[in-house]
Design goal:
Blueprint (H helix, E strand, L loop, with lengths): L17 H17 L3 E2 L5 E3 H8 L4 H6 L2 E3 L5 E4 L4 H10 L2 H4 L3 E10 L11 E10 L4 H17 L5 E7 L6 H13 L7 H9 L10 H6 L12 H16 L4 E3 L13 E7 L7 E7 L3 H4 L7 E7 H7 L4 H4 L5 E6 L1 H17 L3 E3 L6 H11 L3 E6 H5 L2 E6 L5 E5 L3 H12 L6
Parallel strand pairs: 1-5, 7-8, 12-13, 12-14
Antiparallel strand pairs: 2-4, 3-4, 5-6, 6-11, 7-9, 9-10, 10-11, 14-15, 15-16
Helix pairs in contact: 6-10
Bound molecules: histidyl-adenosine monophosphate (HAM).
């Protein structure tokens, strides 16, 4: 029969790799909690209009990358291409602003974009998202950048660069937009088809185009920093001042506009040379008008997302070190012994000791070999003869010392294992 493979751009995260993901997620949960974030879990399917309105009609995501379908009735639904719009929808729907002046929310999960798959780019990928709603204090902008950098360092990712920019506000951006449009109109013949079209609808998007000729066209384009209003300028200066307190190196990249239209003022990315052409491991920024544009109150916001596939490829931790080892392996020979092995094995598991037995190897020797290979701390050896006498051998796999032990006292066995492996759960 023909085998069925996974959908192109959709990837399995297999045992041996998933341990690293668990480790990254555990560190994230701890660190995000210490920065005052609470978890929110939002659906992966939303009404298409949410993303259209949130992300912007003329972005790549909306123009060509969404997985959209018409539900059985006539409602257009889309798999989420990002989480920010969903988090804000939930924030508005549950009137969080009425109970908390400032909400700090994080969410971890899959996103879907029908991009061309390549190294570091998938059609289903995962993000850790953080959003702060309710304040435009520049200290929060810096706090989020500190959080990303601190988290990446905590999972031992080195050689990253924080790039920041400001995208202005509805007061100063229109002037800048007009200046860019004027500048690019002269370069229209050099632009790709998409950008030539966007030149009239959304010229800032051209900064985000990856086509060489478009990149070249914007090389000496005017910069927003020159058009910025005093409020945006002041905000940006304060953000930089706050980042400076923690000595986090950063570079101002005036060409960074980000791929989504909702940003105002601060935008930032964390890039790494080790990632190749898809070099951003995290990106985010301020979106002071988004909550209102999605039908909510006039509440400012800022957030970021870290790409988990890219992060997992950068984090050096060896998943094999994270797998853990059994506290006990039970080697059993003969039918009665196997019956005992089953009982004991599950009893110890319920006490919290990771216990293994072989359903495959038959001889005692091959079972001992398996125990050794798994790195078990102890092996309990049960033969029918020993079992008939209610005895077993407990071998300390590190010292090689084997002691005879009564099978009538399960708890004694557990006590020995716990003593040797320290308090708490053995995994
Ligand atoms: P984004 O820059 O589109 O921002 O995505 C954030 C991160 O997700 C990227 O830096 C990258 O690491 C990862 N990523 C994006 N697309 C892919 C892909 N196709 N394959 C693998 N990884 C990918 C956002 O999504 C915003 N919602 C971030 C944000 C939150 N802004 C404010 N709050």
């Amino acid at each position: 029969m023909e085998k069925i493979t996974a959908v192109r751009g959709f990837k399995d995260i297999m045992p041996g790799e998933s341990e690293k993901w668990q480790y990254i997620e555990t560190v994230a949960r701890d660190i995000f909690a210490s920065f005052g974030f609470q978890e929110i879990r939002v659906p992966i399917l939303e009404k298409t209009d949410l993303f259209r309105r949130g992300i912007g009609e003329t972005t790549d995501i909306i123009e060509k990358e969404m997985y959209t379908f018409t539900d059985r009735g006539d409602e257009s639904l889309s798999l989420r291409p990002e989480a920010t719009a969903s988090v804000i929808r939930a924030y508005i729907e549950h009137s969080l602003h009425q109970t908390e002046p400032v909400s700090k929310l994080f969410t971890i999960g899959p996103m879907f974009r029908r991009e061309r798959p390549q190294k570091g780019r998938f059609r289903q990928f995962h993000q850790i998202n953080a959003e702060v709603l309710g304040t435009e204090d520049p200290a929060i902008d810096a706090e989020l950048m500190l959080l990303v950098v601190h988290f990446l360092k905590s999972v031992e990712v080195e050689e990253i660069e924080l790039q920041i920019n400001t995208l202005g506000c509805p007061k100063c951006r229109p002037q800048f937009r007009a200046r860019i449009q004027e500048y690019l109109l002269e370069k229209e013949p050099e632009l790709c088809g998409d950008c030539a079209r966007r030149l009239r609808t959304n010229p800032l998007r051209i900064f985000d185009c990856k086509v060489d000729s478009c990149r070249k066209a914007i090389e000496s384009a005017p910069e927003l920093l020159d058009d910025m209003c005093p409020e945006c300028r002041g905000h940006f200066e304060k953000v930089k001042e706050y980042i400076g307190i923690f000595d986090i190196p950063f570079k101002v990249n005036p060409k960074m506009v980000r791929g989504l239209d909702y940003y105002t003022r601060t935008a930032f990315e964390v890039v790494s040379k080790s990632l190749g052409s898809q070099n951003a491991v995290a990106g985010g920024g301020r979106y002071d008008n988004l909550v209102r544009e999605l039908g909510g109150p006039d509440v400012p916001g800022i957030g970021f997302a870290i790409g988990l596939e890219r992060l997992a490829s950068l984090a050096p931790k060896d998943p094999r070190e994270l797998v853990g080892r059994p506290g006990l392996f039970i080697a059993a020979l003969g039918d009665v012994a196997r019956f005992w092995a089953f009982t004991l094995c599950n009893y110890f598991r319920m006490l919290g000791i990771r216990t293994e037995l072989s359903h495959y190897e038959k001889s005692l020797k091959s079972q001992m070999k398996r125990s050794d290979k798994m790195g078990s701390r102890f092996t309990l050896i049960l033969g029918d003869k020993e079992v008939a006498e209610k005895k077993a051998g407990l071998r300390d796999m590190e010292s090689g010392v084997q002691e005879e032990i009564s099978l009538e006292n399960f708890d004694r066995i557990a006590e020995i294992i716990f003593n040797k492996m320290g308090e708490g759960k053995i995994v």
